[in-house]
Amino acid sequence: MAFFTSPFPTILNFRDIGVSINGLQTAAVLKQGRVFRAARVSFLSVRMTDPFKHIEQRKKYDAQVFHPGGAGLDSAGFIAPMKIPDIRYREINLNGSSYERALLKRLRYTSLAKLIALMAMGRRTEAIFILGSEIIQPRGLLGQAKDAIDSSVRELKQILEILAEAENHPVLFHCTSGKDRTGLVAFMLLLILDIPLDAISADYQASESELVTEKETRIQELRVMGLSADFADCSPNWVVDVHKHIIETYGSVPGYLDCIGFDESLRSKVKSNLLENMTAKP
Question: How many other CB atoms are found less than 10 A from the CB of residue 230?
């Protein structure tokens, strides 16, 4: 299997989806250099139109970002990314308000009241622990993905619409670890492109080794949120089980995509943008 060699050593789980998938096929199926996935992007000083240029600029910015006081912190306590001129940013949270409401509805009234009180007092970490330990933990990684599929339809449609427009390419999408929310977007994109489930699963599983260097840190973060260490893993059955949920709930992948408003004309645009040969099946 051929892997993309990242020009960004400090950005975890960064890869070209086209390279990843083509390395799993007998022939090139996807166009390369079009769609990239990654973990949190604390910096990005290289234009995605040519990711191998300006490495010295990247190194200089790297030094600035990690210099004490050299950059602000975001709401999660991470170094806030610098926005680079001439790159368009779209901030879409797959676990946004619709997803949060779906989780809150599952809480017991007493737990919901306690969570609201904690948030009102500014004790956000304790409030998140309630939601994590009582709702997310019992449902596991698969339940988390199912909830996003069912509730984050507006956000998922927005992301797919960006991928449908050729003028937006190349595109990089990411989340904290580049595994769950990013993995779900990549999963849906590759389903649209008719990529076999085993190849989609292999691409998803690639995040396991990509994230090994930060696994212990991630486990500590998860425990603060009331989640167990297995949330840092890539479940081997995740792709098959999420696909099964879509089939059982919506009848088919096209049925789900029609349900969220991402119709056949938009799916054709995605295929035209990313498939090497639209007449050939992978």
Answer: 12
Count CB atoms within 10 A of the CB of residue 193. Answer: 20
Enclosing H/E stretch for 111: helix 109-120
Pairwise CA distance, residues 86 & 21, whole Å = 29
Instruction: With CA atoms as reference, report the closest residue to 150 among 222, 203, 101.
Output: 101
Q: pLDDT tens-digit profile of 18-51?
A: 999 999 887 889 999 999 999 887 644 443 434 4
Interval 92-124: pLDDT, tens: 988 888 999 999 999 999 999 999 999 999 999
Residue 210 scores a pLDDT above 80: yes
The number of angstroms, rounded, from the C-alpha of 146 to the middle of its chain's C-alpha atoms is 14
Q: What is the dihedral of CA 163, 166, 171, 175, to 10 degrees?
A: -10
Q: Is the pLDDT of residue 214 over 70?
A: yes
What lies within 8 Å, CB to CB, of 81 at 6+ separation is 41, 42, 43, 44
Q: Beta strands of 126-188 (E only): which ranges?
A: 171-174
Cα separation of 17 and 21, whole Å? 6
- Exposure string of 4-16, with b = 16+ CB inside 10 Å and e = fewer, is bebebeebbbbbb
